[in-house]
Design a protein that fits this description.
eight-stranded mixed β-sheet; single chain; 472 residues; 2 domains; five-stranded parallel β-sheet; 13 strands; Rossmann fold
Length: 472
């Protein structure tokens, strides 16, 4: 496949030459595959993106900006209406980017899933959360697969991007698509390409991140590889969808395990009176054999807290107990409790007060810095735990004016961000830094706070050294 890919993606080749090269290398390409490849290379193919959230919307933007006609699908009419008015509902995607692709005539958003017949390419970017019992919740993939299956026509390719366990594409999605009588590899094509979106990453936007591709057949892999090569720096073909699905899990489990390691190191360092952040920065000067990861108040986001459990669940089917992965999950899940215990100790030692009745101002509610994304945020866990222990809690987040409804934390819905003023800071018994947004004036915080408990090393990174700051 690598030889096909390297030749097919040579920008010096004409569309007809690319088609000829792929066809000669892959003798299984049928007439449907011919036509689809030809339309993709000529940018005539209509791209359908199902799910216009943090993954689907940037992808839709990129295809439209590369000259493709894009039809976006979402069940949320508020989202589709907002996009069709030329506005964005995701902070790091500016309104002018949405309005530009709308005004170009290259993008329309819709809640009408009967229009799934229109695109030649259908890319599924729907959520894959966990159930309350930490098991995969594939309802959104299943509903989308059933909707596509009811409208599927010959010559389309369906690509799943949602994070999931190995086997989902062929064992769950494929039967739904074939329910109407069409067959993958003959009538339509099926592939998996895991999303690698990192919201607000200024160094690696969607177009600068290579795509992994695994097809249900060789032709599907060829088509998906050529498709993504039109919009990103490169596509990497793997043997099959299961391999591609595992790649995604491996990437995020790698991060989860290493974050758990430094979280455990943090606990040890604190007991010994050592600054773990200084240790990590010093170790990172070694040009080989070390990669810096940083501790925090817990894991958040749509992937790292979720993906490990997809693999542990699937591994049980094979009688395998994933001890290492599950231990990492336990360590990371314990961090909110650890942070609150440290806060409680500092309130008692420095001010002689209990956590119950104490006024706590949390800085940051998003799962990571500089985004408006609440998914799986450890701040929500900490917020609820503080309230249950009798603290009086408020928060400030420059990116999240109000907490939207969430499945796991419904009681926090509607809580609003406080303006960050000297008076608000001085009125709190402690300021707890949970998310290290760049827009926060940490100097003002330190100057006016009685106690700052910093879980992100944000104050030190701002060049501030003060006696009222405690790293947790």
């Amino acid at each position: 496949m690598s030889a096909i890919y390297q030749t097919a993606t040579d920008s010096a080749l004409s569309p007809s030459r690319i088609l000829e090269t792929v066809t000669s290398a892959d003798k299984s390409v049928n007439s449907a595959g011919h036509g689809l490849i030809e339309s993709i290379v000529a940018r005539d193919a209509i791209i359908g993106v199902v799910g216009l959230g943090y993954v689907g919307l940037p992808l839709a933007c990129l295809f439209a900006e590369r000259g493709f006609q894009v039809l976006g699908f979402d069940v949320d009419v508020t989202k589709t209406d907002t996009l069709n008015l030329g506005a964005s509902y995701i902070e790091h995607i500016p309104d002018d980017r949405i309005s530009a692709m709308r005004d170009s005539g290259k993008f329309v958003a819709s809640t009408d899933f009967a229009k799934l017949r229109e695109p030649s390419v259908l890319i599924i970017c729907v959520p894959t959360p966990l159930t309350k019992h930490r098991e995969p919740d594939l309802q959104y993939i299943e509903k989308t697969g059933a909707a596509i299956g009811s409208t599927l026509r010959p010559g389309q390719i369906v690509i799943l991007e949602s994070s999931t366990y190995p086997g989902t594409t062929r064992d769950v999605l494929k039967p739904l698509l074939e329910a109407g009588g069409l067959r993958s590899g003959t009538d339509f094509f099926l592939a998996y390409s895991p999303e690698r979106e990192d919201p607000a990453n200024v160094c690696y936007s969607t177009s600068r991140i290579p795509k992994i591709v695994g097809g249900d057949c060789q032709t599907a892999c060829d088509i998906a590889t050529i498709l993504y090569d039109q919009i990103v720096v490169g596509a990497v073909a793997v043997r099959n969808p299961e391999t591609a699905e595992f790649v995604k899990l491996a990437e995020n489990i790698f991060r989860a395990v290493n974050i758990a390691l430094v979280n455990e190191l943090k606990v040890i360092c604190m007991a010994m009176g050592v600054d773990v952040w200084e240790v990590i920065e010093a170790a990172a000067t070694k040009p080989f054999g070390f990669m810096p990861f940083y501790p925090g108040p817990g894991l958040g986001g749509h992937c790292i807290p979720v993906d490990p459990f997809y693999l542990t669940w699937k591994a049980r089917e094979f009688g395998i107990h994933t001890k290492f992965i599950e231990l990492a999950g336990e360590v990371n899940a314990a961090m909110p409790e650890f942070v609150i215990n440290q806060l409680t100790q500092q309130l008692s030692a420095r001010q002689g007060i209990a956590l119950r009745g104490a006024k706590i101002l949390m800085l940051g509610i998003a799962y990571k810095k500089n985004v408006d994304d609440l998914r799986e945020s450890p701040a929500l866990v900490i917020y609820e735990m503080l309230l249950k222990r009798g603290a009086i809690v408020s928060y400030h987040d420059p990116h999240i004016g109000a907490i939207k409804p969430t499945r796991d934390h419904p009681a926090l819905s509607g809580h609003c961000s406080k303006e960050l003023t000297a008076e608000e800071i001085a009125g709190a018994d402690a300021v707890l830094i949970v998310t290290d947004h760049d827009q926060i004036d940490y100097d003002m915080v330190v100057q006016n706070a009685r106690l700052v408990v910093d879980t992100r090393n944000a104050v030190a990174r701002a060049g501030i050294d003060a006696a009222n700051v405690f790293k947790a």
